[in-house]
Amino acid sequence: MKDLFLIAIIAGETVAFPSERIDSVVKVRESVPVPSAAPFISGLFALRSRVLTLIDCQYFVTGEPAELIPGQPAIVVNIGGCSYGLLVDDVLDVVPIRTAPLPLPSQLPAGWSEIGRSLLEHESETLLLIDPDYMVNPAMRRAA
Amino acid sequence: MDDLIQEFIAETRETLDALASELVLWEQNPRDSERLDAIFRFVHTVKGSCGFLNLPRFERLSHAAEDVLAQVRDGRRDASAQLVDAVLAVIDRIGELIVVMETGEALPDSTDADLIAALNRDIAPPMPDPDVEDVALPSETDQARRQAVVRSIRVPLELIDHLMNGVSDMVLARNEVARCLRDEQNGTTLENAFERLSACIADMRDAIGQTRMQRIERIFSPLPRLVRDLCADLGKQVDLRTSGSNVELDREMIEMIRDPLTHIIRNAIDHGIETPAARRIVGKPETGRLSIAARQSGNQILIEISDDGRGIDTEKLVARALAARIRNPSEVTGLSERARLELIFAPGLSTADHVSAISGRGVGMDVVRSNIERIGGSIDLENQPGRGLRVILRVPLTLTIIPCLTVRAGGQEFAMPRSAIREILFDSNSQVRIQQVGGCDLAYLRGECLPYVALETLLGLDVDPEPQARHRTIISVNAASDLRYALSVEAVIDHEELVVRPGAPVIMADGLYAGTTLPDNGRPMLLLDPLGLAHRARLNEMPKPAQALEEEEGASPKIDGGSALLFKELSGELRLIALAAVERVEDVDSTRLAMAAGQMRLSIDGESRAVIGLSARPEAPFTKLLHLTDGRVHALYAVDDVIDIVRLPSHVEPAPQPGLIGGVALIGDLQLEVLDVHWIFSMLPGAAPATDRPVCRLIGEDDAWTRSILAPLVAAAGYNPVVARPGDAIDGDAAISIIVGDLPVAPSAVGGQVIRLSDTLASASADADTIYRYDRAGLLGRLIAGQQRQSA
Questions:
Q1: B-interface mutation test, from A28, A45, A50, A51, most B Cβ less than 10 A away
Q2: pLDDT digits (tens, 9 = 90+) for B74-105
Q3: Which residues on chain B are in Cβ contact (under 8 Å) with A49?
Q4: What CATH number is associated with residue A72?
């Protein structure tokens, strides 16, 4: 379980999520905006009887809020007792990666270096490992 | 093994909480064998479990304590104060270690030799040991860690059984619905099955709600210990009484009120209750009294914390507010006593003379109030300077299901807790006027001026250019006890009870939202925080027009100025009455009115009260009544209609004779009669009838001033004024005599108490009995003092 990673696409780029943090992957049909909230919050959506916060992963990279396409996939994570949906372009696969993570290169653009935690080698491809904790509360890490 | 440790932690914590009060009682009476047994049992259980779970540190501590307690039990040792302290220290250490264990960290590596030595050191005073290592974590990190811990709850088995049965019923009901659907039996069979399922779900919801309920005892039981420790630190003696500990409250709520309650208790002991020496001087028993009572009232829980200390010194409070530049002198002068008391809630204000470890650390009553208000509660103070303070907390029973109003703004729907809403009006209503003053919008609702904001502006939404409703709706919001505003929304949709859950921290951080909810339509909805909205609108930072009005009302009992209610008498004429005297206006069913004992009377709240202004039962089905009150006595006054609220001019022409009409005021071009509220109350049964009143003889020229200015004042003070000329024969007894002007009447010739009114200020100070004729306060003071002497 520890070596499993979910491969997804954010802003056209293939990235990896640590699978032990992930509850499920769902399709989001519609979301309700949260006025005057931080720009990376895409809105609220209902998952059965629960209300989840939808995080716009693309915003961290491009600085542009993404328009929700009905049926777009979101990765559901539970952080600090709250459930969030991380809105991604697409979810590709779950793969085991056993190679040791590499440190982030220093020339990485600001957006990627903030949400990224390390680099992973998978089938001769290098993937950025995403840090879900940062995305649900960026202020927390900056303060720390 | 982990499970066992978790269970050990939960159980030990729970016993520790319950034991806290036992410990204090034991300390008061170390010979109380019952308490000793309870404490003995606790350390014995801890010892047993630790041996089994291999927790040597706990075992050493509990073993040492058990040994000592056993010796006390057998009478081999005396329970001296040191011994009690040492045992308490051991139990505290166990509690601290439990907290550390809960966070899943390794126990700090140290021995507890200091504590164990203290147990055996019988006579020697406890020396501050230089090696004493502090296990206690700093309180903030402690708090943060505690939150990270998995929370557990103990539920009675009976309730679990009930839940299990409920689930079985629900499954059966579901199966039946499924069968009906499969067989396409619509009609009544399906309806019945569905009904049953609904009933089951409702029942389950209640039962689950009960598992969340907890006795308030949970926060009461550690209080004796808190009080004991505070008293020991401050050198005070306090007798703590708690009642209503079996009242049940949502466990979430219990956590929320724990800190505010602790803070209020700290304040009561630190600032309220005096030292034993000071109490002796003012004639109070040396031991102060602090009582905490909880009770349920409707869907609210009331918690009263009252002490018999010195109360709040509002003068000092005002001085502090000025010194700390929280208020400026011009703001302070007009404040009513109540508004002055409210200063205690101003941020950054403390009445403590010096900052102590107990209070005055920056966390003030403002935080207490905002915490209480955040959970939909309120806080009230009843101050009796020199005699004590009573703090009343009102909190809702549960946080999860909140009666809400759903509103629409900017094409989106929001929920708003109904507890904060005072009234809802359309902006087309004639009672509503919106005006721009110096760049900010103000709404005048029935003469009351409130800051006015649109919800769209606050949330940064675009106003819907083609709204579904033709008129916007204005909600008058009571965000906090002194913070009111008018919120404009596109439309109010519905009123419903919503299950509210906290939102993600990133959403809640804004302060605009209090949570999220999922209504029937399946679209998530945000619950607005009325206080957060007010902060966003920067309402608490600008001068509050609403409060200014309130303060003026508070000052209106002054004879001149103030607000007055313009109303139409049943006979048709317009009259005014001081607004301060009007408690409320009510439409009553005319059938509740009856002629009895020569008066028109209304049956209300199980009693019969006289109605003024009615000579016969009205024919209309409803009668409009003004409820008048002087704070003690109530009176009812029948009117045809209430028209407006107006400002009284500073000068009201007094009426020539005392009576229902106290004077005439000029409002615009209209001369309107102003009711004399005082006269109304003086005519009520209960007030002394005119004949029984003590006589006050007014000796002077029978001029207009004496008759129409002095006489009503004397009558108002409860006397029967009799005008006498200086030459008249002085007959009959007068309780008090007033000599008007500088007449050559010898006081000795009059008898009784004599007051001399002088025409000029200069001659007023001639002797103690001479008062300047317009020294109203001085004259009334003398008259009232005389009245009291009479009745005594």
A1: A51
A2: 777 777 777 777 887 888 888 888 877 777 66
A3: 518
A4: 2.40.50.180
Cα distance from B467 to chain A (closest Cα, Å)? 19
- CATH architecture of the domain B690-791 equals 3-Layer(aba) Sandwich (3.40)
Partner-chain contact B518 A51, CB within 8 Å: yes
Note if the pTM is more than 0.80: no
Which domain range does residue A81 map to? 4-143
Top-level class of domain B217-313+351-396: alpha beta
Integer Cα distance of A114 and A131 in angstroms: 9
Q: Give the residue from chain B lying closest to A55, CA to CA.
A: B506
B510 contacts A37? CB cut-off 8 A = yes
Q: Which residue has the higher pLDDT, B424 or B3?
A: B424
Are residues A35 and B523, on separate chains, in Cβ contact within 8 Å?
no
* Inter-residue contact B92 to B111 (CB < 8 Å): no
What CATH code is assigned to B2-148? 1.20.120.160
CA distance A56 to B250: 35
* A32/B525 Cβ within 8 A: yes
| Interface contact flag, A53 B507, Cβ < 8 Å | yes
Q: How far is A36 from chain B (nearest CA, A)?
A: 5
Q: CA-nearest residue of chain B to A54?
A: B504
Asked if the interface predicted TM-score (ipTM) of this complex is over 0.85, the answer is yes
CA distances from B51 to B5, B91, B108 (A): 12, 17, 19
* Domain extents in chain B: 2-148, 157-215, 217-313+351-396, 401-549, 556-682, 690-791
CA nearest neighbour of B506 among A63, A110, A53: A53
pLDDT at res. B60: 80
Decide if A44 and B460 are in contact by the 8 Å CB cutoff: no
- The reported pLDDT for the residue numbered B337 is 78
Query: DSSP H helical segments within B273-429, as ranges?
Result: 276-281, 314-323, 329-333, 337-342, 365-374
Residues of A in contact with B510 (CB under 8 A): 36-37
Q: Choose among B746, B769, B767: nearest CA to B756.
A: B769
Count of pairs with CB atoms under 8 A, one residue in A, one in B: 63
Residue in A36, A53, A84 closest to B460 by CB? A36
Chain A: closest CA distance from residue B459 (Å): 5
Structural domain count of chain A: 1
Question: Which chain A positions have a beta carbon within 8 Å of B464's beta carbon?
Answer: none
CA angle B523, B526, B529 (to 5 degrees): 165
CA-CA-CA-CA torsion sign (A87, A92, A94, A97): negative
What pLDDT band is residue B408 in, cutting at 50, 70 and 90? very high
* Three-state secondary-structure class, residue B234: helix
Instruction: Give me the count of residues in chain B.
Output: 792
Q: What is the pLDDT of residues B509-537, one digit of tens each?
A: 778 888 899 888 889 999 998 888 888 88
Superfamily for domain range B401-549: CheA-289, Domain 4 (2.40.50.180)
